[in-house]
Amino acid sequence: MIHFKIAIDCVIVGYDSQLNELKVLLTERVNEPQKGKWALPGGFVKKTESFEKTAASILLRETGMTNVYLRQLKAYSLTDASQDNRIASVAYYSLVKFENLTDASRQQYSRWFPWNGIPTLPFDHGKKVAFAFEKIKELVRLEPVVYHLLPTKFPLNQLQRFYEALYNIKIDNRNFRKKILKLPYIERLDEVEKNVSHRPGYLYHFNEKKYKENSSPY
Amino acid sequence: MIHFKIAIDCVIVGYDSQLNELKVLLTERVNEPQKGKWALPGGFVKKTESFEKTAASILLRETGMTNVYLRQLKAYSLTDASQDNRIASVAYYSLVKFENLTDASRQQYSRWFPWNGIPTLPFDHGKKVAFAFEKIKELVRLEPVVYHLLPTKFPLNQLQRFYEALYNIKIDNRNFRKKILKLPYIERLDEVEKNVSHRPGYLYHFNEKKYKENSSPY
DNA sequence: GCAAAAGTGTTACCCTTACACCCATGA
DNA sequence: TCATGGGTGTAAGGGTAACACTTTTGC
Hints:
The structure is a homodimer. Chain A has 5 helices and 10 strands; from the N terminus they run ββββαβββαβααββα. By secondary structure, chain A is of the alpha+beta class. In chain A, strands 1, 2, 3, 4, 5, 6 and 7 form a 7-stranded mixed β-sheet that branches. A 3-stranded antiparallel β-sheet of chain A has the order 8-10-9. Chain A binds a DNA duplex through helix 4.
């Protein structure tokens, strides 16, 4: 009976609102194979850990964060391994708030790469990143996961620019506002943008409780 | 370093249009543990097989079919196993046309259970079945996967009854027809139902080519 | 005062929903 | 002739999309 080592790979995604672009966290591999190459952060599943736990600990190691959006992407069976010892991997993807990253969480061997400037990755990591982005695009249409990427408080046009960047479209700002302001779970705060060289806009936030109350179970 | 045996479990789903209900194929376990219990058909990944290949061969073994709709559901890390030898499993789900089942494909140890009459399953199989149905419900809303479950040629009200059963709703047949007939990829055939004790309806089929032409890439 | 984004209404179109009756067939 | 589903149109409401100008701030 064949046995597998199981690696967990994490596609950790953040949104840089300054540059209006999505980013992925990559780390430089410190071990062979592919030593020195940029790759997805990952690790092997330990004896007592579930896949999800392993993914969460990788996320903690790389970003210093816990309790962030983390979902399974897909399990992959690598077939290029040798003999009796195959490697499988389960990929996870995570959405993190860029603003919450501390300097301490910027690891020596890690770097955020813009979505459109990712180097060629070893193994099947390129495929995993691409699949994660497909998934995220789908997901954003269906559920308010955007709010895991945006700062807790955001002006409406930051939200708009996010959608414009993600789908590479132009959105009419009047229609966009009408649509967003109708949502019961987006609430305006008594606070405005600061240090912007234009008329400051009100800040909004996502009220998760109201979202759950208002979303029908089917 | 811990190693895993990896099992593939398949949630094989069919639609019985006679009874208007979704069914799941279960098999009686012939080996310990849980020998004699109904469970999801499955097997361990062999040395040279990918996960998907393993799933496809299980599907072939159980239904005699190839080239059917088969997708990965999720990878599960069982944590109740002993010592150095853990078991992981990757679940797949499949949609098959009930009409295409031959008698030969009705295995001695297998039986189709109605969605609402599934016995308590061992391991995490109950969880997997439930998750597969959630996924399928979602999927049907987003993509025309219904047509993997329905017969190749179907009258409109069979389609309507399928939706009504899946979501447990009542649909107005005028509105339903308007909506379906507007779809460019549902084509009416020059053929009508036979042996029905009411006015026979025209048969329709799903034109996959037209679907792909007409669906935008984003 | 200039640049840059905030903020604001109306109209047309489309899609969805609600709703009732005659038609063709097998038994 | 009866039971059963096949087949048809219209009106109202809600959401989406196209469209331009004034306001407020930093510099």
